[in-house]
Amino acid sequence: MILTVTLNPSVDRALEVDALIRGEVLRAADSHIDPGGKGVNVSRALLANGVRSTAVVPTGGAEGEQLVDLLNAEGVDLLSVPIAGRTRSNITLAEPDGTVTKINEAGPVLSDAEFAQVSKAVLDAAANADWVVICGSLPPGPSIDAFADLCSRLVGAGSRLAVDSSGPALLAGVAAGAALVKPNREELAEAVGAEPATLGDVIEACRRLRAAGAGAVLASLGADGAILVDADGVLAGVSPVSVPRSTVGAGDALLAGFLSAGARGAAALTEGLAWGAAAVSLPGSRMPTPADLDRTHVRVTPDPDPSRPLHS
């Protein structure tokens, strides 16, 4: 079982528009409402492909109730921790060429007592988990020290920890000795203080995170695919998408696919890239099912050319 933790979940409304024009009245061609949050998406993707997962989420207000209803409707095994604040709502505007504009609320403040309740739920459930996956932004309230303590306690208890976050939270996971971290290009640049221009820059940044404590680094690079740097070496992979619809949740699907296939080596990276590409082909934050997956377009190579430039 893979346990996911989403400290700042959301209800996501996605609208498809012909073109995003400021100051105009726009008509939506289609709309979707989905449960949101990176860890929530990982659980949804795993469930859609027959992999057991439990999601831990703090929920509050009418939006929190709606989130629980949406997750229950999808059959997600849920550990909901009640909080006083209102679960946030996010809006995604998707254009036909794949351009996505997101408007995210900050989310409710979690008190120290509420964060302690969430942490207890995570630590209790972690005993029966193959992986504990902490994803997404930190909500207002909890200190980075409190988050770092949760990561350290999980690793100290023997859990295989994966962290997909940004800024200080990502670095806290690295310092705690997370078995896996999954930054995207921007998060990787922030973590090492330098914007990567080539695959070699990405590989070097991943190696720096490993040297700082992470067991493996899976860097998602959008159109440039993904890089995996671990004790076995370096792998690069791409999976082109002919008709992109929404990039929301693609990195979460990548992580879910990678974990589902053992989280090591070319086979796991291939699976992750197939899941991520399938998510890009779907509207809103829909997660792919087995019928959506096409592994034939995935290309994974060891020791890629470090001079290859990244797309701007």
UniProtKB/TrEMBL annotation:
Catalytic activity: beta-D-fructose 1-phosphate + ATP = beta-D-fructose 1,6-bisphosphate + ADP + H(+)
EC number from the UniProt entry: 2.7.1.56
GO biological-process terms attached to the record: carbohydrate catabolic process; small molecule metabolic process
InterPro entries: 1-PFruKinase (IPR022463), Carboh/pur_kinase_PfkB_CS (IPR002173), PfkB_dom (IPR011611), Ribokinase-like (IPR029056), Tagatose/fructose_Pkinase (IPR017583)
Keyword presence, Transferase: yes
UniProt xrefs under Pfam families: PfkB (PF00294)
Amino acid composition bias (Basic and acidic residues), ranges on this chain: 292-312
Function: Catalyzes the ATP-dependent phosphorylation of fructose-l-phosphate to fructose-l,6-bisphosphate.
PANTHER family cross-referenced by the UniProt entry: 1-PHOSPHOFRUCTOKINASE, 1-PHOSPHOFRUCTOKINASE-RELATED
NCBIfam families named among the record's database cross-references: 1-PFK (TIGR03168), pfkB (TIGR03828)
Protein name: 1-phosphofructokinase
Source organism: Actinoplanes xinjiangensis
